[in-house]
Every structure is written in structure tokens, then in C-alpha cells.
Write a structure and sequence with these properties.
By secondary structure, this protein is mainly α. Helices cover 62% and strands 0% of the residues. The mean pLDDT is 86.
Length: 120
């Protein structure tokens, strides 16, 4: 029994095949880079839209607060507060205080909820 060595044919790599392999590798790298850039751009656009919506909400709140500030500085508001809160009247007016009738007494002594629930 004799052993025979079988020769495996080697793949001959020509310069064209090497250039194609390098080109395929570079194409893959560029495709990956393009995918990463596209995803990053999409995330930035979403963030921009969210921030623009937040700016719109804050601008509306600012406008509301400026309107309230302008109203609080008017003579009408100051007069309303003076009349309602402090009971002031203009010269020549008479202040009238209306007393509400007393609440009807139900005869029950108020209890806390746990006393009401657990009392015999």
C-alpha cells in the first residue's frame, strides 16, 4: 500500500480578483457608513420635530402669561381686587354685606370616617 499525495489545486489570485475583493470590502464599508448616517439623520429629524412642538407650546404659554400680566396691570383688575378682596368702595358708594343664612344643623356630630365605619 503506497500513499499517494494528491495535489490540491491552488486558487490563483490574480490582480483583478484582489482589486475586486478590495472594492467589495470598500463598498460594504461605505454602505454601512451610509446606513449609520441615514439612521442618525432620521433620529435628528425626529428630535427636531419634537423640539419644534415644544417651542410652539412654550410660545403659546408665554403669550398667555404676557396677556395675563397685561391684564393684571390694568385699572379694571386692580379695582376688582380692591372691591372683592379688601371691601373697598368708591367715594359716594355704600358697601353692602349680605350674610348667608346659617346652614341647617342635622343634629349629628361629625365623626371621622373610621369612627363612622367601625362604631357600633
Amino acid at each position: 500500500m503506497t500513499l499517494r499525495l494528491i495535489r490540491v489545486p491552488q486558487l490563483a489570485s490574480t490582480p483583478v480578483q484582489m482589486i475586486l475583493a478590495v472594492a467589495a470590502l470598500l463598498f460594504g464599508l461605505f454602505a454601512y457608513s451610509l446606513l449609520q448616517t441615514t439612521q442618525s439623520s432620521a433620529r435628528l429629524h425626529e428630535r427636531q420635530a419634537a423640539l419644534q412642538a415644544e417651542v410652539a407650546v412654550l410660545a403659546q404659554e408665554k403669550a398667555d402669561l404676557e396677556g395675563l400680566r397685561a391684564y393684571l396691570a390694568t385699572d379694571e383688575y386692580i379695582e376688582a381686587v380692591a372691591r372683592n378682596e379688601f371691601g373697598l368702595v368708591k367715594p359716594g358708594e355704600t358697601a353692602v354685606v349680605v350674610a348667608a343664612p346659617p346652614a341647617p344643623d342635622s343634629g349629628r356630630v361629625a365623626k371621622r370616617w373610621w369612627q363612622e365605619l367601625f362604631s357600633p
